[in-house]
Specification:
globular, 2 domains, about 55% helix
């Protein structure tokens, strides 16, 4: 999806807030701010937000000698959501429509996004839980998803953020309980980028027990087809069902010709306009 002015300002503001709270070298901070501002004002024409985020991280690495570090935030949210996993799984399995109930939590959990909201804290967990109980997956899209699962042998899940991956895992557990013949493959980022999930996060939350985990080989905050591993492209071409989580995957995959179900939280005005959904609402959409 095309990079717009809102994306540039959002990424600039959130990452400056994060770096200013963790770095104390005034000279390096000024240089970082100058270079990021220049990049955000004049990005290459083909850029989308996930690629811009990768380049902001690259500027930080060049100036400070390391990536922008979200290790603490990732561990915090992975542990906080993992503590709720069994209770939520039990609640969901007792509902009248477990797939719909699990989807609501997975959609709402996309709120945990430090690329767009750098000051999230533990209170975001309660927000996610309450938002999930209010979420209403599009009925037509939900019915299409369940019908395709009934016939499927393979499901590819493209994950997005820390914490969120625990709610994705619950959805995968529900699907495997209801459709045990489905093989699930989970795709995570190849290297750390903001609070996006990697193989280490998948291991931390126990995802390996329910899915084959594949890293996409990149540090782009999405599924950037020009750089992902050939194995990931094969999954997109051969999986019976593809579920894409979050805005980064949406921004890199939407319009690329794949039949994908997208589950995300509308955190940007341009995405809200594109999907005709209120800001911060949970969305479930199908690209045919």
């Amino acid at each position: 999806m095309e990079l717009d002015e809102e994306c540039k300002g959002c990424l600039y503001g959130s990452q400056m807030h994060k770096v200013e709270s963790t770095q104390t070298d005034a000279e390096k901070l000024a240089e970082f701010k100058k270079q990021v501002k220049l990049l955000c004002e004049n990005p290459p024409a083909h850029y989308c937000a996930p690629i811009l985020m990768r380049d902001i991280n690259g500027i930080h690495r060049k100036i400070f000698g390391a990536d922008i570090d979200y290790t603490r935030e990732k561990s915090l949210f992975n542990r906080a959501l993992s503590a709720l996993e069994e209770r939520l799984f039990s609640e969901i399995m007792q509902s009248s429509d477990p797939v719909a109930a699990a989807l609501k939590f997975a959609m709402a959990a996309n709120y945990i996004d430090f690329a767009r909201m750098s000051d999230l804290n533990e209170g975001a967990v309660e927000y996610v839980i309450s938002a999930a109980r209010r979420a209403v997956p599009n009925a037509e899209t939900l019915e299409s998803f369940k019908e395709k699962l009934k016939k499927a042998n393979s499901l590819c899940v493209l994950h997005d953020n820390c914490g969120e991956i625990v709610l994705d895992k619950i959805l995968i557990r529900v699907i495997k309980r209801l459709y045990p013949e489905i093989k699930v493959t989970s795709v995570v980022r190849g290297r750390p980028i903001i609070n996006d999930v990697t193989a280490a996060d998948a291991e931390e939350v126990g995802l390996y027990g329910y899915a084959e985990v594949v890293d996409n080989g990149t540090d782009v905050a999405g599924t950037y087809l020009k750089e992902v591993r050939p194995e990931v492209k094969r999954l997109l071409e051969t999986s019976d069902v593809i579920l894409s989580k979050g805005l980064g995957n949406l921004e890199t995959l939407y319009g690329e010709g794949y039949k994908i179900f997208y589950a995300f939280t509308c955190k940007c005005k341009h995405v809200s306009r594109r999907f005709n959904a209120p800001l911060f609402s949970a969305v479930f959409a199908e690209e045919l």
